[in-house]
Amino acid sequence: MFDVEKYISEEIKDPKYDILSLDKLVIKIDIKKILYKFYDDDIKMIKLKEEVSNLTYINLFSIFLNSGDYKLINSAFKLNDLLLHKKIIDVTRHTQNIEILRKKLKL
Amino acid sequence: MDMFDYTLLMIDGQPVSEIYLSEMIKAGYPPKNIVLIKPKIRNKKSILISKIIGKKNALDLLRFYSRLRVKPVKIHYQDIIEKVISVQKFSFQDLQKIKRDFKRLKGVTIYADSINSLEVVEYLKANIEGMILTAGGGILRDEILSLKKIRFINIHSGLVPEYKGSDNFFYSLIYGDTPGCSIFYIDKGIDTGGIIYKTKTPITLRDKGLEIFNKSEVFLTIKGYIIPYLKIKAFIEYIDINKDNQSFDIMNLPTESQQTSAGRTFYSMHHLFRDAMIEKIIL
């Protein structure tokens, strides 16, 4: 079973940027617009329909932002919108994030 | 069955459909059947109008009326196309002839909500056999994929397995790769079918003077017109190479299996990401 919150909390402390696993989380953000706590080992089937915490979403945004990968940075833009929609962040923070993302793309 | 017999499944209002039909006719490979999917008429006023003047006329009238209500935005399609690919290769005048070709080739119109609608499935089941070339319409679901005696071919704007999903032409350029097209029979996965043909399309957007246009315009033109043009040219290239092969059977073309876990699946670009990337790849 894949523990999303555990994975993201470990990743934020010691980033490995495992594209294979992160790519599988991208579809949850880009298409499903929701991230649950547990999936099967393949990160496909939902094992527990309990949404992750706000902190997990914020940490995932940070991981995508700092990944240096274009696909993940695209997802960071979408996750930023999702954070605003879920009222996890406010408009000011949302705008600040956009500027940070834009700067990342210019590098 | 003639080895190049096929049905073209078109979606109303999508330039990809018109471009496919236009280029296949120009190349000497017109479809045996054309099936055009148009949206259903929904609201009460529209249903009443359609009962009075007919469904087709009602749709045309509604479209004309909606265009009057919305302030038109001028998009420099032809100018952008001219800068990216030679205008001699592609002409809007060819697309304008499509309506005449549609009638001449006895195209059939089906009113349905989507390519996977029951109306489409039932029509195809009752009337069509053989290869269907899809020109837009999105992902095909099980109901349509499981139709007997039919196989669907998709021309994908990315080199699989590395580039699957959406906006692959752009992602190829973003990652510094050469864009390309892949042709395969459609299966249940996203761009995972057995590969019939792959070809690179060495096209660049750099130093073409595209910076004078709005980034959305550039994106829409490339996505709406140039990519479909490149895709259908890839399919024509494949047919040209194989047309003299006596064992060529469009329903059973030799395919190469994909390692579906390889490569990446991309999703549509966020508009801000897209604008930043368009700027990056055109300068």
Instruction: List the helices and strands of chain A in order.
Output: EHHEEHHH
Overall average residue pLDDT of chain A? 95
Percentage of helical residues of chain A?
A: 55-70%
- Weakly predicted, low-confidence segments of chain A: none
Strand order of the largest sheet of chain A: 1-2-3
Radius of gyration of chain B: 19 Å
Structural class by helix and strand composition of chain A: mainly alpha
Task: Count up the helices of chain B.
Answer: 11
- How would you characterize the largest beta sheet of chain A? 3 strands, antiparallel
Name the pair of protein chains with the most residues at their interface, and give those residue counts: A-B, 19 and 15 residues
Distance between the ends of chain A:
37 Å
Beta strands of chain A, count: 3
> Any idea what the shape of chain B is?
globular
| Percent in helix of chain B | 40-55%
Q: Radius of gyration of chain A from the CA trace?
A: 13 Å
Describe the main β-sheet of chain B briefly: 7 strands, mixed
State the assembly state of the protein chains: heterodimer
SS strand fraction of chain A: 5-15%
Mean pLDDT of chain B: 87
Classify the secondary structure makeup of chain B into a structural class. Answer: alpha/beta
Find the count of extended strands of chain B (DSSP E, 2+ residues).
Answer: 9
